[in-house]
Amino acid sequence: MAERYRIAVIGAWESVMGFQALGLETYPVTSVEVAKETVRELAKAGDCAVIYLTEVLAKDMGDVLSRYKDDLRPAIILIPGREGSLGIGKDNIQRAIERAVGADIL
User: What is the pTM of this model?
Assistant: First the structure.
C-alpha cells in the first residue's frame, strides 16, 4: 500500500477554514510564533507533504522558510490570505524557477 501524506493549511482562521471543506488539515493561528512552531511540528512528523502558508505570516518567517526551502518534504507554498496577495508567493516561485532553469522564464 502506498504511503499517504497530509496537506496542511496555516493562517488566520478566516483564511484557512474554507480549506477544511476540501479535506485539508487546517491550522488557524494567531501569531507568527505559533505558525513557526506549527510548521516545525508538521515537518518533524514526516508525513506532511505540503504546507500552504498565508503570505501575511510568511513575510515574518524567513528563518523557517529558508530552513525548509530545499527539502523535498514538506513543500511550503505561500498563498494569499483574506487580506489579498502581497506578491511574496509569486516571487518565491519565480526564484525557484530561476534556480532550477537558470533563467527567469516568467
Answer: 0.81
